[in-house]
Write a structure and sequence with these properties.
Layout: E1 3-5, E2 8-11, E3 24-28, E4 33-37, E5 46-49, E6 52-55, E7 60-66, H1 81-93, E8 98-102, H2 115-132, E9 137-141, H3 145-153, E10 158-161, H4 171-178, E11 182-185, H5 203-220, E12 226-229, H6 238-246, E13 259-260, H7 266-269, H8 280-292, E14 297-300, H9 303-313
Parallel strand pairs: 7-8, 7-14, 8-9, 9-10, 10-11, 11-12, 13-14
Antiparallel strand pairs: 1-2, 3-4, 5-6
């Protein structure tokens, strides 16, 4: 595991990273110098959940179920029992392996929802999905520790935290107590301010430093089933998003599965001068490239299309 401090690498001992005859690429920044060994195209991982072992022998599709009124693409579509059940069925029937439930919009500029309201929304939605789909693998998208606890107590299998444990100081200790898989995402600030925080000196170096620091905190509370998410669209410009995508290999240094969440985001629809409703084709193109760069999980609105992309890319 790589552990970063301000001007040096503390440890570099993971035997899975160092392989014979792999090309080596060196990056330099004012504050960090790090070495990335480019590994084979796709490493196989698995994570342990209450619902069983999730293998990533092939890329996993995570379908989005937003029980929100203001999400940028599907806000207001799934706010009652019948619509939530239909969406859960659709995700699974079309080949999705994970249902990711979110109760708060994290689009740029979004305002916070009161914690009690988020807990109530998540508790109800998780219970509905768990009762309707008893064997489904349920993820909950939240940065609040109290919401994470309520979610797991009501049947959720894993937590997807857009803050990477930085918005709520109780989140990482809570994940340690719950002992559930945790998706660690990079963002520089909360949604209402994050797009004002895109002035990085070296974006890859700063992201790797962030992940190294947060992973150390997670390991201290014995959390080891961890997924990394670069946080596309969270405190990044359009150009920075594509730079990160081109350099997705850099995050393989942590020897952890990588989640890519780009579905219908502004990095696609603004580039093409279209609306999110018209961004499926662009999303599919980016998904294909992300799989080529080694993504292990795609978080998507359009499950069938993502599954088809996975199938085709699996033969290339």
């Amino acid at each position: 595991m790589l552990l970063f401090q301000s001007d040096s690498i503390l440890d570099f001992t993971n035997p899975h990273i160092i392989a014979n005859n792999l090309p080596k690429k060196e990056y330099k920044a004012d504050s960090v110098k790090y070495i990335v060994f480019l590994q084979k195209k796709f490493m196989t991982y698995s994570i342990r959940t209450k619902s069983g072992l999730l293998s990533m022998e092939k890329p996993v599709i995570m379908g989005i179920l937003n029980v929100t009124a203001d999400s940028f693409f599907d806000g207001g579509r799934y706010t009652d029992r019948d619509s939530i059940c239909r969406r859960a069925d659709q995700i699974l029937d079309e080949g999705g392996e994970i249902i990711d439930i979110g109760a708060v919009s994290t689009r740029p500029g979004a305002l916070e929802l009161p914690e009690t309201e988020e807990i109530n929304r998540i508790r109800d939605a998780v219970q509905i999905v768990r009762n309707h789909c008893p064997t489904a693998l349920i993820s909950v998208d939240t940065w609040r520790a109290a919401v994470a606890r309520a979610a797991v107590e009501n049947g959720a299998d894993m937590i997807n935290d857009v803050s990477g444990g930085t918005f709520d100081p109780d989140m990482i200790p809570t994940i340690g107590q719950l002992q559930v898989p945790y998706c660690l995402m990079h963002t520089p600030a909360k949604p209402d301010k994050m797009q004002n925080c895109t002035d990085y000196r070296d974006i890859l170096a700063e992201m790797l430093q962030f992940f190294g620091q947060q992973l150390e905190k997670l390991h201290q509370v014995h959390v080891h089933d961890i997924i990394l998410d670069p946080g596309f669209g969270f405190g990044k410009t359009l150009e920075q998003n594509y730079f990160i995508l081109r350099n997705l290999d850099a995050f393989k240094v942590f020897d952890l599965p990588i989640l890519v969440g780009v579905s219908r985001k502004s990095m696609i629809y603004k580039l093409l001068n279209i609306s999110p409703d018209m961004a499926l084709n662009g999303t599919t193109a980016v998904h294909a490239y992300a799989l080529m760069r080694g993504a292990h999980i795609l978080r998507v609105h359009d499950v069938r299309e993502a599954v088809e992309t996975r199938t085709i890319m699996g033969l290339l």
